[in-house]
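call fold(seq) -> tokens
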Amino acid sequence: MANQTRFVVLEDHPLVRRALVENLISHMGDIALVYSGASVSDAVQAINEQGADCIVLDLDLGDGRTPVENVQDLVETSVPVLIVSALADSANVRASLTAGASGFVSKTAEAHQFVDAVDATLGGGHYMSPDTASIILAAPESSVQLSDRERMAMSLYASGMKMSAVARRMDVSIGTAQEYIKRVRMKYAKSGNPLPTKTQLYQQARSEGLLP
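ret:
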């Protein structure tokens, strides 16, 4: 296994899961399949025990959890996450990338786009299939001008994460994470749209396509 690229494939449909694995083998030859199934908790346990180089994730695992929750749990393993999903609307794409996913490929993409995304992810880069990029570009713009870090903090915090988790995900102190949220609220308040509660932040993030 030491000389093999180690993959985790999280997909709840056996036929689709098999197709993803076959595409990986066809492209890379002999791979190590650390975990193949539909349980994020089992996948995380397998990663902790064996390590992994790339996680291929379907957002709709039928497990009763939100896509953002699953992405966040997997990102915490420090293994890059590549999403291959039919849930390629702007909110899910934005939320997944904000939560830390390295790439997003819709299930309508061509096979070569999937392997391009795998190569980019393994190389430490980022990838979006052309159709996914078009969805992002067509998404509504924010009603206020936020910096990338402010938008990230808003999306993470509004998704339900505690401030300590937001700080950890952004690799900043809790005080800095709090400052980002403070700036976000000040900017919206100046625009005539105050967002004093976490629920209001969530509703605003959803309305702008930042969260599903």
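Residues 55 and 81 are 5 Å apart (CA to CA).
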